[in-house]
């Protein structure tokens, strides 16, 4: 894999260069050659953090800003110690975690931290995109929550890698052991082989450590997932018809409800069709969500014809000027032919009302089922014409790697992932964030 691609993946999370990767590794292990001394790096980081904090305090008190001192990487160690001591005195009352900000051997001047300040007029579009992506890295943001959510998937894999790779030479036996670890993590054979191939080209017969393997894993995962990163988008056509399909217990109804709340908050007029006429509690569950979202619900008696209910719901949505019609369907096992036939009937009825609909057919998958999700995807893709997927329950499983296997095999757009029960726990999918969290390299961008 080219260095350019590596930098592209890592830079999306604020990790800009190979030198920074080496610097972080040095500060943690103090073992790598050709990088700055770890103690020197810590002193430089303390100076930067202290200068940033001091500037912020002065701005608050005096409403004026001063130029911050720049740090020259070529200064002697003794001088750095003196400067660090002075700056630490300024911050005795405000302890702050140290963040390494080394960039190609020299540190740039740090601007005063002011969240309310306007961006520089000459900042280009690329920098704005990077800044937007960095927003997920705040303490209460998605990055922290998905890293915690995927900890079960990551921890087992990390433990196995740590026991096998500690300056071990990457020979055929090591590669076979690594492939077994990746397959056990539900990444699938194809994705695992890509990781093995990438490592073989760059590190075969050389000593490798756990961090190097994790970075390569993150790069491969990002390469697979990035083309499929696809937030759910709507057009101006009314009503936009969203059909939700999946097996029982996948989180389909809850996901529909969370999205209904999101769209309603955005000012959209939302209607929900309770197409699950088999499950006794389905209508009650959707009614709770519809009340929360302020959305109208169309439902029928238990056991009534689901296709007929959907037909009526589309009629009502058209007559009432609804922006979005969200259709729930009964959970059904992919091996029940009669139930899959009924789902196909619902799709036909929708198309009679609007040949371009459903505008989105969303397959909701439960991450805890592991490789069984591939079988579900295969069947629903053919029966319902699935256009994209949302994966839920990633916070409760050690099988989060299955999303990579799904992406590699079916190439379906990934709209969102769920890492909890709260509304905010359903987030637009970010390949870079997911790759860092699953590969165990999230510490590189904290």
Kindly describe this structure.
The protein has 17 helices and ten strands. With 446 residues, it is of the alpha/beta class. The chain has an eight-stranded mixed sheet, with helices on both faces. Helix 8 packs antiparallel against helix 9. It is elongated, with a radius of gyration of 26 Å. About 20% of the residues have low confidence.
What is the quaternary state of this protein?
Answer: single chain
SSE ordering: HHHHHHHEHHEHEHEHEHEHEHEHEEH
Secondary-structure content class: alpha/beta
Fraction of residues in β-strands? 5-15%
Number of strands: 10
Distance from first to last alpha carbon? 24 Å
Major sheet attributes: 8 strands, mixed
Mean pLDDT metric: 77
Shape: elongated
Lateral arrangement of strands in the main beta sheet: 5-4-6-3-7-8-9-10
Radius of gyration: 26 Å
Q: How many separate helices? A: 17
What is the helical fraction, as a range of percent? 40-55%
Low-confidence stretches: 32-37, 54-81, 87-140
């Amino acid at each position: 894999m080219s260095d350019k691609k590596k930098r592209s993946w890592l830079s999306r999370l604020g990790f800009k260069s190979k030198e920074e990767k080496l610097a972080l590794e040095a500060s943690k292990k103090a073992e790598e050659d050709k990088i700055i001394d770890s103690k020197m790096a810590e002193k430089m980081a303390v100076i930067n953090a202290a200068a940033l904090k001091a500037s912020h305090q002065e701005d608050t008190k005096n409403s004026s800003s001063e130029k911050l001192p720049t740090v020259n990487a070529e200064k002697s160690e003794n001088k750095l110690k003196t400067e660090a001591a002075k700056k630490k005195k300024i911050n005795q009352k405000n302890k702050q975690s140290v963040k390494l900000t080394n960039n190609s051997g020299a540190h740039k001047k740090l601007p005063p931290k002011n969240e309310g300040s306007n961006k520089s007029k000459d900042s280009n579009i690329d920098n704005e995109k990077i800044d937007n992506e960095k927003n997920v890295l705040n303490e209460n943001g998605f990055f922290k929550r998905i890293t915690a959510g995927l900890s079960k998937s990551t921890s087992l894999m990390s433990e196995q890698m740590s026991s096998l790779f500690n300056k071990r030479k990457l020979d055929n036996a090591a590669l076979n052991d690594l492939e077994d670890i990746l397959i056990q993590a539900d990444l699938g054979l194809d994705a695992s082989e890509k990781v093995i191939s990438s490592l073989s080209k760059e590190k075969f017969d050389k000593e490798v450590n756990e961090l190097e393997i994790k970075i390569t894993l993150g790069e491969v995962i990002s390469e697979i997932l990035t083309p499929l990163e696809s937030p759910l988008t709507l057009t101006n056509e009314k009503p936009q018809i969203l059909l939700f399909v999946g097996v029982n217990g996948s989180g389909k109804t809850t996901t529909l409800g969370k999205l209904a709340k999101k769209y309603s908050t955005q000012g959209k007029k939302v209607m929900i069709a309770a197409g699950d006429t088999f499950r006794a509690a389905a209508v009650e569950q959707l009614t709770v969500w519809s009340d929360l979202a302020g959305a109208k619900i169309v439902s029928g008696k238990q056991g009534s014809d689901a296709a007929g209910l959907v037909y009526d719901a589309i009629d009502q949505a058209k007559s009432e000027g609804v922006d979005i019609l969200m259709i729930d369907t009964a959970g059904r096992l992919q091996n029940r032919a009669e139930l899959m036939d009924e789902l196909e009937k619902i799709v036909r009825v929708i198309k009679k009302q609007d040949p371009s609909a459903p505008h989105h057919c969303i397959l909701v998958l439960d991450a805890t089922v592991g490789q069984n999700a591939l079988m579900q995807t295969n069947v629903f893709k053919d029966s319902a014409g699935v256009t994209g997927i949302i994966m839920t329950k990633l916070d409760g499983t050690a099988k989060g790697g299955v999303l990579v296997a799904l992406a590699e095999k079916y190439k379906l757009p990934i709209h969102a992932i769920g890492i909890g029960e709260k509304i905010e726990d359903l987030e637009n999918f970010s390949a870079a964030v997911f790759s860092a969290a699953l590969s165990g390299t999230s510490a590189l961008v904290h």
